[in-house]
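Appendix B.2, paired examples.
Example (i):
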Amino acid sequence: MVTVNPAPAAATPSAWDFASELRAIDDAQLRRTRRVIESYDGVRLRVGGRDMLGFCSNDYLGLAQHPALAEAAREGAQRWGAGATASPLVCGHSLAHEQLEQDLARLVGMPRALYFYAGFPANTGLVPALAGRGDAVFSDALNHACLIDGARLSRAELQVYGHCDAADLARRLAASSARRKLIVSDAVFSMDGDIAPLRELLRLAERHDAMLLIDDAHGFGVLGPGGAGSAAEFDLRSPRLLYMATLGKAAGVAGAFVAGSEDAIEYLMQRTRSYIFATAAPPLVAHTLRTSLRLIAEEQWRRDHLRELVRLLRQQARLPAGWRLGESTTPVQPLLIGGNEAALSAMQQLWERGLWVPAIRPPTVPAGSARLRLSLSAAHTVQDLQRLLQALAHIA
């Protein structure tokens, strides 16, 4: 008797077909590329053996390679070592962290501040600490992903209002019967560079028994007297306000903080899971940030120069039909192009000319609004800007 082996069954497609998923990303021209930086010198970067002029970082004041910060980091490492060893509520909260929080509160003019190791987990922890089931979170349509994810994690009802549309927000607040109402908004929007109507948002919070949490990642250090940020720029003062900002952009180091009333910050320290259950940032980072805050407050020329660069860019840019600069007065200057392919092509042509300007595509921005994100820094010279403008005119 001869035994015949049956033909092998057709392979069942796996739900974990990463290669197919990556092809779909490529087909939509949405794959992101991570480049290896070999050295930094302010806005001058060495990448793959090439010297590039960068308009890509968030180092708005040009502090990230400041010699005083390097020296402060060395001092901090000598005194505190490399790591914090535990969460802040165990034994990770050093004198350096305590002094930094006091400095932060003083700079932004609020009673108390709480320092986090990074900005994304700060917001994904703060929003669920403030709102939960039975509550409602009111979120601007163009908020950063960390605020969106924080709202989802909270399990509160999520209401998305039109971008910077205070009238839409007012209608939604008035119609809501939620136990607690939390308004969350970027102060300076990271991909558009425009500023939220902060005064109106705070008025609505006070009128509707709500709290307002603003994320000033791209305004702290740049706006307000002494670089105190967007809340100080518009003189916002209220127990209804919680002010959050990051310290890896204009401050040039790392981390984030939230500031507010004594009771609000104590409550957040007790309830924010991303603060309670995460190892603290190394004390040497907190020590370094104290020097950064001093430079932010004292060196007004950096903000003055930055404003002049923004003015020159908007005054002198010569763009083809279909391209336009977004309505921004901040160092984030979006050059809207539209299609993914066209944005990638413009980025590549600038790259070939030694200029690093990132193309931003969905889902970071809405479909059809792909752009070059021109990020200006006090480390740029007027000559650097002229070089960018000439290259844009040529490729256009």
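Example (ii):
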Amino acid sequence: MTDEDLTPILHQWPYVSGEVNVRLIQAGDGRPIIQMRVDLGILQMEMNGRPDGTRPEDSDSLLEAFAARLRRHVEEHGDAEGFVLTSEQCRRLREEAIQFYHRYVSLFALEEYEGVMRDAEHNLHIMEFCRQFGETEFDQTVMEQLRCNTLMMQARAEACQAVAANDTRTALDAIDRGLEAIRNAIEAEDQEEEDAFDNSAEVQLLRSMRDAIIPKLPVSQRSELHDRLKAALAAENYELAAILRNEIRMLKDE
């Protein structure tokens, strides 16, 4: 049927390669929905709940439905022992994570940072759930390749939200927490490459973001950096000390 042809809509909103093509529109009932233009069409996502609008087992997400199953298992057996996610269930959770990934990338482009942090956290919970209860080693570990990127997006969103509120200190703290979380994730994977952390694209992006923010730090907070540096040295936290020295140096250069 001609009224089902998407060609006019696609012509009105051409795809631009290399950009995140998203927009926020209003549905017929007035609720906001997200649309992402991809090369072969348009993805449409709900702002809340599962991006595809479904309610698995009458829950807001498949993760929530499986978490409810776990709670019932613990209530019946006293602990989580014996609770297992089959490979099919893990696959369905990975598919849900892809939906949430598309949405938080879209939300970041729309500067809806609370939604980015919420959806990134959702995917981190999926990773932990599969790691703990997945049936096979593949089910437990396959999503770990996405952990650093998810942590990076979470930190970027929190930092951008703080910058928008002129809270530079909170923005820097968010980035530093993100870097520490990524370091822990890389070390947990027992990567043999000594420079795996420094060579990480996610780490380089967050460091660049931090370097751009540091000169905006209010003068009144510079003494705080010196106090934190002293405390870090006293605690022999040399990684944090190096970060703080760099921040102080950049403030002096500015």
